[in-house]
Write a structure and sequence with these properties.
Largest sheet: 5 strands, parallel
Strand order of the largest sheet: 2-1-3-4-5
Helix content: 25-40%
Order of helices and strands: EHEHHEHEHEH
Distance between the termini: 28 Å
Strand content: 15-25%
Structural class: alpha/beta
Number of helices: 6
Number of strands: 5
Oligomer: single chain
Radius of gyration: 17 Å
Shape: globular
């Protein structure tokens, strides 16, 4: 199958690492949507399972011990992805530090690729985190798509089985993934014809 028609490889980054986190519930729901699609395959990258160093070396210096091993668990997966979905909560009107840390340890892995957002939180549903992430990803030469899915008062939006109570969320997820697929295929095709220049 030609690269331009093969299913998109979508890396789903789970941004929260704190104890008692809600991110896995949202991620499992999203993963069920991805499993139903023939144009995408998903790789869930849970930041709680990949403890990247939080201290960057001084310019020109070697990174802390263990950095290469930790990056080896993540970097190839990001490089192989055609597109991304960030599953993020909102902390203090922004996104969590582990997600920023994972973003900052990488650069060219984001170039010329689309990024979608699924956010959750209290009254704002994590939308302020998404707006901050859009600016960061623009700096890294990624394309963020317009559509998002956000869960306001997220803990009340899912039943005991992890299904959403409001079917509008499932409709929004389909729209999000349809838009991500369009951008993913368009950008992958463009990069196959011309190398991306950052």
């Amino acid at each position: 199958m030609p690269a331009t028609t093969a299913p998109l490889r979508v890396a789903v980054l789970v941004g929260s690492t704190r104890e008692g986190r809600f991110g896995p519930v949202v991620t499992k729901w999203l993963s069920r949507h991805l499993e139903q699609r023939h144009d995408m395959s998903a790789d869930v990258v849970d930041l709680a399972e990949i403890p990247l160093p939080t201290v960057f070396p001084a310019f020109g210096q070697q990174p802390p011990p263990g950095t290469e091993e930790a990056l080896a668990l993540m970097t190839p997966r990001l490089a192989a992805a055609d597109a991304f979905v960030f599953v993020t909560p909102e902390y203090n009107h922004s996104y969590p530090a582990p997600l920023k840390n994972a973003i900052d340890w990488h650069n060219e892995q984001w170039h010329g690729k689309p990024v979608a957002f699924v956010s959750y939180g209290g009254l704002s549903g994590g939308l302020r985190a998404v707006e901050h992430l859009r600016v960061v990803m623009a700096e890294l030469n990624a394309t963020t798509i317009r559509n998002t899915v956000s869960f306001h008062e997220a803990w009340s939006r899912f039943d005991e089985s992890g299904a959403v109570k409001d079917p509008a969320a499932d409709t929004a997820a389909k729209a999000l993934l349809d838009q991500l697929a369009w951008w993913g295929h368009a950008l992958r095709t463009a990069k196959a014809l011309h190398s991306y220049v950052a």
